[in-house]
Design goal:
CATH architecture of the largest domain: Roll
Largest sheet: 5 strands, antiparallel
CATH class of the largest domain: Mainly Beta
Number of strands: 12
CATH topology of the largest domain: SH3 type barrels
Strand order of the largest sheet: 7-6-5-4-8
Structural class: alpha+beta
Low-confidence stretches: none
Radius of gyration: 32 Å
Distance between the termini: 91 Å
Order of helices and strands: HEHHEEHHHHEEEEEEHEEHEH
């Protein structure tokens, strides 16, 4: 309880804190007793609070007395459980190898802030226990590309047209493209910007879907132009990250590879047909031919492409070159 010699400012602050944190109504009599001062002193403090609290400070006439109450916006009580924090940490640890250091730090700080919402203080420490880690061979260090990722994120949100230089595989010099990013995708431990390429001479003309590896973007600048484009989202249901003409694939897998193949979804319209000897035939739709060839070859002798003919011929050609190399 403040003493008589408290300064006017101290009395005002004490009165405000009382009204703010209790949410109760107080009469002049009650307040003067609580702060051990006269009613006129309390009134002066009330008027001081009213000058900057405005309508939040309410006077209520109850019987013969006037009571004072500070109305504050109602905030929902939001709490997180230790398990929810651990699940956030699990997601972070599973994908952190794809993130630049700056974004990883931001994710860590966000999780630390979220942990303050764990209601039981004694459980906060155990919220940070982690049991997950990612093991990646041939990892790309995305730390130098943090700025590119953030710029792409903003461009996607604002529908911005971007001018960029991109170093394609097996090309001596980067090429310039006018590009509208639509989404960022992770695929086989890499980050890709998916969107639509525009005609650099006629920006209103769309060239077609385009997928760019973020780590090969050498320069990126947002232009003042904005453009809402249609990206073939249905092709996300097909095998492969590069979007070309869809192609139906049929592959025979031996018994050893059958379990691995059966455990996974290669396209949403896939069909697996068991064979009498334990082999399986997988039919699925691919978004491009190039990735199918590399994928089929990765199974070695355990996979045989049955259809289409042009993919079989591509694989024969690749195998011929490989045999000559060895």
């Amino acid at each position: 309880m403040p003493a008589e010699e408290s300064t006017p400012s101290e009395k005002t602050i004490s009165l405000f804190v009382l009204l703010l944190f209790t949410g109760e109504s107080y009469s002049l009599t009650k307040l003067s007793e609580k702060f051990n001062c006269s009613k006129s002193t309390i009134l002066r403090r009330i008027e001081a609070i009213e000058r900057w609290a405005g309508e939040c400070l309410v006077r209520q006439k109850i019987g013969n007395e006037i009571k004072f109450k500070l109305n504050t916006p109602k905030r929902p009580l939001v709490f997180l459980s230790p398990d929810q924090i651990r699940h956030l940490i699990m997601c972070r640890d599973m994908v952190s190898h794809l993130m630049p250091e700056s974004i990883k730090d931001e994710i860590g700080n966000t999780i630390n802030t979220a942990a303050s919402l764990v209601e039981d203080l004694s459980q906060r420490a155990q919220s940070f226990e982690t049991i997950c880690r990612s093991e990646v061979k041939g990892r790309i260090d995305y730390s130098p590309f943090g700025g590119v990722i953030l710029e792409l994120e903003s461009a996607i949100r604002d529908h911005s047209v971007c001018l960029l230089k991109y170093q394609a595989v097996a090309k001596d010099e980067p090429r310039e493209h006018m590009f509208v990013p639509v989404t960022l995708s992770s695929y086989r431990e890499s980050i890709y910007a998916c969107g639509v390429k525009l005609n650099s001479q006629r920006p209103h003309d769309e060239v077609g879907p385009m997928v760019l590896a973020v780590h090969r973007i050498k320069e990126l600048a947002r232009t003042p132009l904005t453009r809402e484009v249609s990206y073939p989202a249905e092709m996300d249901n097909y095998f492969g990250i590069i979007k070309h003409e869809p192609i139906r694939i049929k592959v025979l897998f031996d018994t050893f590879a059958a379990t691995y193949v059966r455990e996974r979804e290669w396209s949403t319209d896939q069909c697996i047909t068991p064979q009498d000897n334990g082999d399986i035939v997988l039919e699925f739709t691919a978004a491009n031919e190039e990735e199918v060839v590399s994928w089929a070859l990765s199974f070695g002798k355990r996979a045989t492409v049955l259809e289409p003919k042009q993919v079989r011929e591509r694989i024969k050609s690749e195998l011929s070159v490989m045999i000559n190399a060895y």
